[in-house]
Amino acid sequence: NTSGIYTFNFTNEENCPSTDTLHLTVNQSSFSTETLTACDSTLWHGNTYYSSTNTPTYIATDEYGCDSTVTLNLTINHSTHQSLFQDACDSYTWHDNNYNTSGTYTFDYTNENGCPSTATSILGTAKHSPNPAHTPTTTHNQVLPATI
User: Fold this and answer.
1) Is 47 within 8 Å of 56 (Cβ atoms)?
2) pLDDT by residue (tens digit) across 72-94?
3) What angle do CA 114, 73, 38 make, to 5 degrees?
């Protein structure tokens, strides 16, 4: 399993001294690690992964015909999805937008893990205050668990 030049001395069939020389190159298998970070899932060599792992391996043949083994070191971060229920008087401001009618509104953003995420605000009946000088306030604010 070692490269080198090897000689073999012998007597040939005519009873003459002879030498065979072997120029040997032994190519070694290679091992490496590929580190990936993805949001929610990733496809790697035909397999989809949904959680962090460091055990998958992929074996290819290199240019010398030797095994080349790659181990995946994968970190999966997750998107965030949240729903907020709001009731407001006159209007409601959410992410720099002013809403004055009931409805479902969404806001897309990148979360702290760098993944695309969505917040949904469900605005109940926008009530008009009887006093125009009255400052609208939020009367109900509930954050629901994230669902993916």
Assistant:
1) yes
2) 999 999 999 999 898 888 888 88
3) 25
